[in-house]
Write a sequence for this structure.
């Protein structure tokens, strides 16, 4: 268990077309969100679906795969680590961001579609 310090695995649907940034050093960064759904029954026995949105960041080769194959609505499985950072807005407000920086992606969906890892 000592190797499981900061690992996140999610399966969900992409919320918007990935934003691709080409860095000066030639590398790419891809940023997108995925929605995960969890269903349960409430106190009245009615089914309730809880949707959570996760911000995903991919670097380098994984970002290239995202750019080529990932689009809005596509179901993906991702694995990476949870990161947190903060920044200051132009108005001086401090904002906090939590993201999943991925090192693996699996494209899911209909049989016969292109899949990559």
């Amino acid at each position: 268990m000592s190797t499981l310090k900061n690992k996140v695995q999610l399966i969900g649907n992409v919320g918007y077309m990935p934003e691709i940034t080409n860095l000066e050093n030639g590398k790419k960064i891809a940023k997108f969100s995925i929605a995960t759904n969890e269903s349960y029954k409430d106190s009245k026995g009615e089914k309730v679906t809880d949707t959570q949105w996760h911000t995903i960041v991919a670097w380098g080769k994984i970002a290239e795969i995202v750019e080529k194959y990932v689009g809005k609505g596509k179901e993906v499985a991702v694995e990476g680590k949870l990161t947190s950072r903060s920044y200051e807005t132009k108005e001086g407000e401090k904002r906090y961001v939590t993201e999943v920086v991925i090192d693996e992606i699996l494209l899911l969906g209909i049989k016969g579609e292109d899949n990559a890892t």
Remarks:
- The chain is about 10% helix and 55% strand.
- The chain has a mean pLDDT of 90.
- The domain at 8-38+50-107 is CATH 2.40.50.140 (OB fold (Dihydrolipoamide Acetyltransferase, E2P)).
